[in-house]
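TODO from last week: model Ferrous iron transport protein A, putative.
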Amino acid sequence: MAKRNNRCLSEMKPGERFRIEKVAIPDAVLRRRLLDLGFVPGGEVEVGQRSPLGDPTAYYVCGTTIALRKEESNYIYGEKIGHD
């Protein structure tokens, strides 16, 4: 089965919504922490503000705001949902 439009979470722009398909972070401790925070396959994330220098970025997930660095959000794959 072919993947749809798989992208990294870090490629999304503020205001866009994203459905997670895979969390592929090689660091097991960080992977577990992100899963515990709600970055789980099937979960939805909204991209919030980027810091003035572009890193980190705020993400709204499970009713809370989480800031991730680009190096972390590069390992979260899925698809943009909503308007194109």
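Done. Residues 6 and 79 are 5 Å apart (CA to CA).
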